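Table 4 source record.
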Amino acid sequence: MGFNKAKELTMNEREIFYHNGVRDLIEDKNVSILVCGGGTSDKHIFEKLGFQDVTISNLDTRMTENEYAPFRWKHENAESLSFNAESFDYVVTNAAIHHASSPHKVLTEMYRVARKGILAFESRDSVIMRFLERYGATQTYEHAAVYYNDCKYGGMNNTEIPNYIYRWTNREIEKTIQSYAPYCKHKFVYRYGTAFPCTPELEVKGQLKKNLIKFMRPVFIVFVTVFPKQKNLFAFYVEKPIIPNSLFPWLIFDAKEGKIRFNKEWGDRKYKRPTKRCT
């Protein structure tokens, strides 16, 4: 069975999760969208949802502009996007960040380029996923993608080196964004979904792993019903606050210079006045 055929076994679960996440979290169809690490599946989702102003980007040199019409196509490395800050209303990515050598950099680049918010679909670093990794029921390094891309593409930064599958937690996302933009509180929205691993079906000796997944399925469904954060599909939406309206009280916006400054008056109320050191 080929890689694409095996992916079809879970594609419906993943595509429905992706489709519903975009539909529910980006309701306005007239906004501008940048898709990072995108492909034909992204095109189909955004076409189906009725979006018009979409730019699909990827660093894969095999892709051509004609494949993505009527949407725009751009060759881009998501770790260092060429666009100016706030060039798009929303920046979206689906199952692509884990291919980057610097996943957190992708997240902050998406944030930089977005005006209103970012939306990402990735795998969650849950107890269940760690269990499956430990027993080889799911990949830790994505070598199957490289093997089924002529052993030349599909790995780290789309090279032939299989990428480490970086899985996220809620807290890690929040720390990354707050560190990059420590000006105000952000709104974070999380969604969780399930798609069972398909790569054991590709392996020559994968029958035992397939049986393990089949055995675990009913137990897993009950478990994630009680503990939804243990599901393996993970979507996170970050809404960009409006500056200067949302600044922390210890910051002020200097309209003359167009920059954020520390609010000394707030500091005077909060802290004791500094004393001179004795010499």
